[in-house]
# Entry
Amino acid sequence: MLTQTDINAIALSLDASLGETAIAAAVLRAQWASASGDQDKTYNWKRIAEQLEVMRASTTVH
# Structure
């Protein structure tokens, strides 16, 4: 049977994975917008990626 510690570790791992996926998706969207010449969307997606990275870093347990 899983302990609360096990469950917490799994939850943190999933959160980290989802955070990495969200950051990667935002970076890809920024690259796509840049390739299409849309400066506003490029800037917005880069900002979203940066904000996600800050959020992920602040919630990561070291």
